[in-house]
Automatic annotation (TrEMBL):
Protein name: Glutamate carboxypeptidase
PANTHER family named among the record's database cross-references: ACETYLORNITHINE DEACETYLASE, BLL0789 PROTEIN
Organism field: Litchfieldia salsa
Limits of the Peptidase M20 dimerisation domain: 178-273
Active-site annotation: D81, E142 (proton acceptor)
C-alpha cells in the first residue's frame, strides 16, 4: 500500500493543482460546484456513488459511498470551499517551490480531498474491503459556518462509530483532538439624529448606547475557562456633527465546553435587554452556531487508535486543541468518536502564503488508508 501511494505522488499533485486552480470561495457557488464535479467523476470511476445535494445559495454538498456499501461505520468529512473570492487564482495560481506547494486553498483543504480519494484507491489496490465501510460528506460552506450542510453532516453521522475530519494537520503534524465552539451575534442600535452643535439635547446617540454594550460584552470574556467575547466590527453615524441615529456591532463568541453555551447566550441577551441611553432601542440577532469539540473519552480512544497506526508506519503523532471552529464539532456533539486534522501538513491557511508540505501528502494518505483499515477490522 505504501509503495502504491508513493508512486502516485505526482498524480496527486496534478489533481491538487487542478482543484486549487478553480476559484471556490464560499460565496462562489459556480466554482464550488466545479470542484464537486471533478471529484464526483473521480469517485465514480472507483465504483462509488455520488449523491449531489443541490443548494440554491451555496455550493452543492456531496454524499459519497461505495456501490457495495451496506452500513458504513466511518464518516469522513471535508469541504470544497475556500475563504478566497473569485479572481484569486488568476492572481496567484498553484505553484511548487522546493518541497512546498502554494495556492489558494492548497492545504485548507484541497490537498485533503485528494488524500481521501487516493487513500480509498490504495485500499482498493490491495483488495482491502474497508473502502466499503466509509461514507463521505463533502460540503461547500464550511468556511462560513456550514449553514446549509450542518444538518446534513449531523444526519449522515447519526449512528456512526467514527468520524475522521480532513482539516489540515497543524504545522508540527499534530492531530486535532479538541476545538472551541462559538457563535456570531449582531447588535443593531437605533437612536435619534440631531445636529450636535445646534440642538444636541434633542438627539439620542446610538453610538453612545453601543459603547456601553461593547464594554459589557467584553467583560464576559473569561480566558481561564476558555470563553472569549470579541466585538470585531463596529459601524455607525452619518456625520461628525450629527448625533448618531444608527450603530451596529458584530460579535464573535468562543467557548470550550458545551455547557458554557446556554449560560453565555443568556448573559448576552440580558445585557442587550437594557438600554443605557434613554430613547435608544437595541435589537440582538444571531446564535451559537457551533458546539465545541471536547476531548472526551470517545475521542481520546480514537486518537489512541490513530496514534497506534502512526507508530506502525513510522509517524509519531501528537495532538492539540485549537480555537478555530470546524465540522468536527457537529460529529463530536452528535456522539460520534471524532478526530480532526487528518489532512497533510501545511501552514498559513487563509492567507496569501498558504502552503502544503509535499512530503507529508503521501505520508498522511497512508495514515488515513491504514486508519480506515484498522477501524474496519
Amino acid at each position: 500500500m505504501k509503495h502504491f501511494i508513493q508512486n502516485k505522488q505526482e498524480e496527486m499533485l496534478q489533481l491538487i493543482e487542478e482543484l486549487v486552480n478553480i476559484d471556490s470561495g464560499s460565496y462562489y457557488k459556480e466554482g464550488i460546484d466545479r470542484v464537486g464535479l471533478v471529484l464526483q467523476q473521480k469517485f465514480e470511476r472507483l465504483g462509488f456513488t455520488v449523491e449531489v445535494k443541490e443548494e440554491a445559495d451555496y455550493g452543492n454538498n456531496l454524499v459519497i459511498k461505495h456501490k457495495n456499501a451496506v452500513d458504513p461505520r466511518i464518516i469522513i468529512c471535508g469541504h470544497m470551499d475556500t475563504v478566497f473570492p473569485e479572481g484569486t487564482v488568476a492572481e496567484r495560481p498553484f505553484r511548487v517551490e522546493g518541497t512546498r506547494a502554494y495556492g489558494p486553498g492548497v492545504v485548507d483543504m484541497k490537498s485533503s480531498l485528494v488524500e481521501v480519494l487516493y487513500a480509498l484507491m490504495a485500499l482498493q489496490s490491495e483488495d482491502v474491503k474497508a473502502y466499503e465501510n466509509v461514507l463521505l460528506v463533502l460540503n461547500g460552506d464550511e468556511e462560513i459556518g456550514s449553514p446549509s450542510s450542518r444538518s446534513l453532516i449531523e444526519d449522515q453521522s447519526n449512528g456512526k462509530d467514527y468520524a475522521l475530519i480532513m482539516e489540515p494537520a497543524r504545522k508540527d503534524g499534530s492531530l486535532v483532538s479538541a476545538r472551541r465552539g462559538g457563535g456570531r451575534y449582531t447588535l443593531v442600535v437605533k437612536g435619534k439624529a440631531a445636529h450636535s452643535g445646534i440642538e444636541p439635547e434633542k438627539g439620542r446617540s446610538a453610538i453612545e448606547a453601543l459603547a456601553y454594550k461593547i464594554i459589557q460584552l467584553h467583560q464576559l470574556t473569561d480566558h481561564e475557562n476558555g470563553i472569549s467575547v470579541n466585538v470585531g466590527i463596529i459601524e455607525g453615524g452619518s456625520a461628525v456633527n450629527t448625533v448618531s441615529q444608527n450603530a451596529v456591532a458584530h460579535v464573535d463568541i468562543r467557548i470550550t465546553e458545551l455547557e458554557q453555551a446556554a449560560m453565555l447566550e443568556q448573559q448576552i441577551k440580558s445585557i442587550c435587554s437594557v438600554c443605557d441611553v434613554p430613547g435608544t432601542k437595541i435589537t440582538l440577532e444571531g446564535e451559537m452556531n457551533r458546539p465545541p469539540m471536547e476531548k472526551n473519552e470517545r475521542n481520546e480512544e480514537l486518537l489512541h487508535v490513530i496514534q497506534g497506526v502512526g507508530k506502525e508506519i513510522g509517524v509519531k503523532l501528537k495532538d492539540t486543541s485549537t480555537g478555530g471552529g470546524g465540522d468536527a464539532s457537529f460529529t463530536s456533539a452528535n456522539g460520534v468518536a471524532t478526530i480532526d486534522g487528518l489532512g497533510p501538513v501545511g501552514g498559513d491557511a487563509h492567507s496569501e502564503k498558504e502552503y502544503l508540505e509535499i512530503p507529508t501528502l503521501t505520508e498522511r494518505t497512508l495514515l488515513l488508508a491504514k486508519t480506515i483499515q484498522k477501524l474496519s477490522e
